[in-house]
Known about the structure:
By secondary structure, the chain is mainly α. 83% of the residues lie in helices and 0% in strands.
Amino acid sequence: RFNKEAGTIYNNIANIHYQNGDYHISLDNHLKSLKIRKEENDTMGIGMSYGNIGLIYDVRKDYKKAISYYQKANSYFDKAGQKNALAWVKRSMGTAHMEMEQFSSAISNLKEGKVLSQAISDKNGENYCLLNLGIVYSKLYEKYQNPNYLDSAEYYLEPLKTEDSNPRIKINYLNEQARILIARSKAEEAI
């Protein structure tokens, strides 16, 4: 019993250091937490440790390592049947793949994250997926100049038009809409 609590304590210490930007110390504590959680066979705890380690690599822009840890977390969350955690890790994998320009993997993960977010009534998570799907398709347009990608970007961004509950999503939505309007030679509408 003490060991399981120690795993949680290391996790909490790691989260505090993560919030303060002390990623090296955070990583060290998450690894200690992971070791204890493995010894305790704590499926959900192991998944959380892997996911948190993935976040550290994500913020360090080491997306390949982040994805590797997210995939491990995904496996444990799936075993535990935790839809909330699965939705979160799918969104995280999707954005990491997007940053690496692995667009088909980004789209797949973000779509899965959207469906899971809808299933658990997580409107913020669903909107996050919609926004990032729009960004993926905008990036595809920039890379290949195929107007169909702009249509797809608009399709995913459209439900966010009236989003007011999350200012960060709203700001990013407006930025993406402006990029699309400029790409469609409608710069005056973007202003």
